[in-house]
Specification:
Layout lengths: L5 E4 L9 H15 L4 E6 L9 H14 L8 E2 L4 H14 L2 E4 L3 H14 L23 E4 L6 E6 L3 E6 L7 E3 L7 H11 L4 E5 L3 H14 L5 E5 L2 E2 L15 H7 L3 H10 L12 H7 L10 E2 L2 H14 L2 H14 L7 H14 L6 H7 L1 H4 L8 H6 L2 H15 L5 H14 L4 H13 L7 H22 L4
Parallel strand pairs: 1-2, 2-3, 9-10, 11-12
Antiparallel strand pairs: 4-5, 5-8, 6-7
Protein name: Glutamate--tRNA ligase
Subunit structure: Monomer.
Subcellular location: Cytoplasm
Length: about 475
């Protein structure tokens, strides 16, 4: 198959964007983007009873957060019903499909008789080769004439060649008796009309491929490249479900995972490039191929997701990280940062990024720059402010008043004061953390002082020297 590669993601709008669907979208996006191809989006909204505009909006929002941009307009499958029906009638005209007048009662009676005789319950319509002159004036469905001998081979890039005997396939319905097309027909027509060259989807669709190939063949259309990817399981090896935790990608945004970390993790979920665990989007686009997808179900592992997310936070540009942090706060239902807080976060980002695996951890590390005086004091931090340490802070404050506000000078002054009190700076660091942040675990004392500035640093040290535990 030559020409431009075209992939698609085709979710049903019946709920949020599931984590499995997100990975399918990512694989299609990476495959197309890495080869100068197109990545298309189709909403399979033919099930009017279950499809909702809210679900469509949730899917688009999830893809937006993940950064999976699509080419062209979003295609509505339901809007193409007339085109799908047209193809069914075209197959009828070609003699590759037929009108079936069997009622539901007749079909069920056939199956019951087959069961009783121990035969296949695949329905064999008596109308398959009937003379059109014998057709009654009654409701009918249009069925595809499936080959009855030989076999259908699905040449799959992940599963290998999968052979299905044609006598295991029924003459599937293309158009219902009310003239509406079935999903299986709509998928094939849409994929053909959209120019889709590669169908990358969950392996729960593998059996559908054999039936869909019947339509491609009957219409004389090129069959796309198939790649059916294994499902995602929980850590216990069972199919991913609500009991394993979050299922919708929106929940992962609300938990504070960065989109880049999520993309990296989802790409590694069932696909590998050597031993590489951490990689950028550019590397993923360059490396991603169908041969790297495994046949076994992937297991979702929160620890790996956290680890990769932390690495992506560490390398992110400060402005981009602040922008995504603001989006996280909104998604999680928290108050937005004030302008002053945002400016402080931006200045502090260089010393916050390391070792923060999620945005809540990043915010906790940034407590010193987000908090206002008087600081709320953690119990462990408060315990650092005993009488001796408060005395040292009292003598440190005037010495810092006229110090030039550079790291070297701040280190020199604090070390000298510690020495004068017969101790080392290491012993002074705990009380200073408490004074500056109200926390026992913080970024470097000197980073905090530089970010807070002289006035705020001195004010916090003064507060701590005057209060604290006895």
């Amino acid at each position: 198959m030559s020409g431009q590669i075209v992939t698609r993601f085709a979710p049903s709008p019946t709920g949020y964007l599931h984590i499995g669907g997100a990975r399918t979208a990512l694989f299609n996006w990476l495959y197309a983007r890495g080869r100068g191809g197109k990545f298309l989006l189709r909403i399979e909204d033919t099930d009017k009873a279950r499809s909702t505009p809210e679900a469509t909006a949730a899917i688009l929002k999830g893809l937006g957060w993940l950064g999976l941009d699509h080419d062209g307009d979003v295609v509505s499958q339901a809007a193409g019903a007339a085109r799908h029906a047209e193809v069914a009638h075209d197959l009828l005209d070609k003699g590759r499909a037929y009108k079936c007048f069997s009622t539901q009662d007749e079909i069920e009676a056939f199956r019951e008789a087959a069961r009783a005789e121990g035969k296949s319950t695949l329905f064999q319509s008596p109308w398959r080769d009937a003379d059109p002159a014998a057709h009654p004036d009654a409701p009918f469905v249009i069925r595809l004439k499936t080959a009855t001998e030989g076999s259908t081979v699905i040449r799959d890039e992940v599963q290998g060649d999968v052979t299905i005997r044609n006598d295991q396939l029924d003459d599937m319905v293309l158009l219902r008796s009310d003239g509406t097309p079935v999903y299986m027909l709509a998928v094939v027509v849409d994929d053909h009309d959209m120019g889709v060259t590669h169908v990358i989807r969950g392996d729960d669709h593998l059996n559908n491929a054999a039936r869909q190939m019947g339509i491609y063949t009957a219409m004389g259309w090129d069959v796309p490249v198939w790649a059916h990817i294994p499902l995602i399981h929980g850590a216990d090896g069972k199919k991913l479900s609500k009991r394993h935790g979050a299922l919708g990608v929106d929940e992962y945004q609300g938990m504070g995972y960065p989109a880049a970390g999520m993309r990296n993790y989802l790409a590694r979920l069932g696909w590998s490039h050597g031993d590489d665990e951490f990689f950028t989007d550019d590397q993923a686009k360059e490396w991603f191929d169908l041969t790297g997808i495994g046949k076994s179900p992937a297991r979702f592992d929160f620890k790996k997701l956290e680890n990769l997310s932390g690495q992506h936070i560490a390398i992110a540009e400060d402005a981009a990280l602040l922008h995504e942090l603001q989006a996280y706060l909104q998604a999680a239902g928290h108050s937005a940062l004030t302008e002053a807080q945002a400016n402080g976060m931006y200045r502090a980002m260089y010393c916050l990024k390391e070792r923060a695996r999620t945005f809540p951890e990043l915010i906790e590390k940034a407590h010193f720059v987000l908090a206002n005086r008087p600081l709320d004091m953690e119990e462990k931090a408060n315990a650092q402010l005993d009488t001796v340490s408060r005395g040292i802070l009292q003598s440190l404050t005037p010495q810092l008043q006229n110090a030039s506000w550079t790291r070297d000078e701040l280190e020199a002054v604090t070390s000298r004061i510690a020495e004068e009190h017969g101790t080392k700076f290491g012993k002074l660091a705990g009380p200073m953390r408490a004074a500056l942040a109200g926390r026992a675990v913080t970024p470097s004392v000197f980073d905090m002082m530089l970010i807070l500035g002289r006035d705020e640093t001195l004010a916090r040290l003064t507060d701590a020297a005057a209060t604290g535990s006895a």
